[in-house]
């Protein structure tokens, strides 16, 4: 169920009230850095070849 413009406006208003207008740029910057780190970790994980598992000897 997608959020409409009214819901987004209410959420934005609540965020401004909770964190204050001065903290919003800092909060947005932190979220951006976190998202960037997450994407970087995902792409590095995809580039890694699957680690070779040691072969087990059958008795």
Structural commentary:
The chain is mainly α and 59 residues long. It has a domain at 16-46. It has helices at 5-19, 24-47. The chain is elongated and about 65 Å long.
What is the straight-line distance between the termini? 56 Å
The largest sheet, given as strand count, sense and whether it forms a barrel, is: none
Shape: elongated
* Averaged pLDDT: 84
**Model regions low in confidence, pLDDT < 50 over at least 5 residues:** none
Itemize the secondary structure elements and their pairings.
Layout: H1 5-19, H2 24-47
List key phrases describing it:
59 residues; mainly alpha; 0% strand; transmembrane helix
In short:
The chain is mainly α and 59 residues long.
């Amino acid at each position: 169920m997608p959020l409409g413009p009214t819901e987004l406006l209410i959420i934005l208003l609540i965020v401004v009230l909770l964190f204050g207008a001065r903290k919003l740029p800092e909060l947005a910057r932190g979220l951006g850095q976190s998202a960037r780190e997450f994407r970087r970790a995902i792409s590095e994980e995809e580039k890694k070849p699957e680690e070779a598992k040691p072969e087990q000897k059958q008795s």
